[in-house]
Amino acid sequence: MPGCNTAGHCYFRKVGFYCGVTFSRVVVSIKNHRMSSVKTLAKQKRIALVAHDHKKADLIDWAVYNKTVLINHELVATGTTGKLLEQALGVPVKRMLSGPLGGDQQLGAMIAEGKIDVMIFFWDPMEAQPHDSDVKALLRLGVAWNIPMACCRATADFIMTSPFMHNEYNAILPDYTDYLTREIKEDE
């Protein structure tokens, strides 16, 4: 079988994919999934931290609670959130522009370039944002490039306590060859 050696070891388990079902079901569930490569996330991750105005206090509280883990990683944040994190954690935070002024787009570009490994984004589901299209694009890029993403405290806690957070992790990068090589038809 593709991805497996003669001893029956599955390639996908070697790169960090594990679904908890029997070997034959693993192969069946992923046989149609094309992969171009695997990206190894180092032990020290590059973590993007973003929060909307009404969620900044929640993110800062969460970050202080998780300070012992966060200070072992490279932190990147949008404008004001970055300043608040530096003050609360006492460590340097690489700061982008404020989200509505292009910071969300800067982080999205970093995700597309492979420069962000994890994103913690406490967004406000109860408040429309003037830059909603940027927010949606940032979330879409996180999914498109298969990075671990948390949009609430519970999920962020799960990510921070995962064994993968403290070790190297091999993330499967989606194969966009078909999209990039598709035929583009001109309008008549």
Give an account of the 3D structure.
- The chain is α/β, with parallel strands linked by helices.
- It has a domain at 46-171: Rossmann fold (3-Layer(aba) Sandwich), CATH 3.40.50.
- Helix content is 39%, strand content 17%.
- It has nine helices and seven strands.
- It has helices at 11-14, 23-30, 56-65, 67-70, 79-89, 103-112, 132-144, 153-161, 177-180, and strands at residues 35-41, 46-51, 74-77, 94-95, 118-122, 149-150, 169-174.
- A five-stranded parallel β-sheet has the order 4-3-2-5-6, with helices on both faces.
- Helix 3 runs parallel beside helix 5 (79-89) and helix 6 packs parallel to helix 7 (132-144).
- It is globular and about 55 Å long.
- Residues 1-31 have low confidence and may be disordered.
Write out key terms for the chains shown.
188 residues; alpha/beta; five-stranded parallel sheet
CATH class of one domain: Alpha Beta
Number of helices: 9
Order of helices and strands: HHEEHHEHEHEHEHEH
Indicate the CATH topology of one domain. Answer: Rossmann fold
Rg over CA atoms, rounded to whole Å, is 19 Å
Q: Give the second-level CATH assignment, the architecture of one domain.
A: 3-Layer(aba) Sandwich
Q: Looking at this structure, what is the CATH superfamily of one domain?
A: Methylglyoxal synthase-like domain
- pLDDT averaged residue by residue: 82
Low-confidence stretches: 1-31
Helix content: 25-40%
- Our estimate of the beta-strand percent is 15-25%
Count all strands and give the number. 7
* Class derived from helix and strand content: alpha/beta
**Which term fits the overall shape?**
globular
From the N-terminal CA to the C-terminal CA, the straight-line distance is 46 Å
Main sheet: strands, sense, barrel: 5 strands, parallel
* Major beta sheet, strand line-up: 4-3-2-5-6
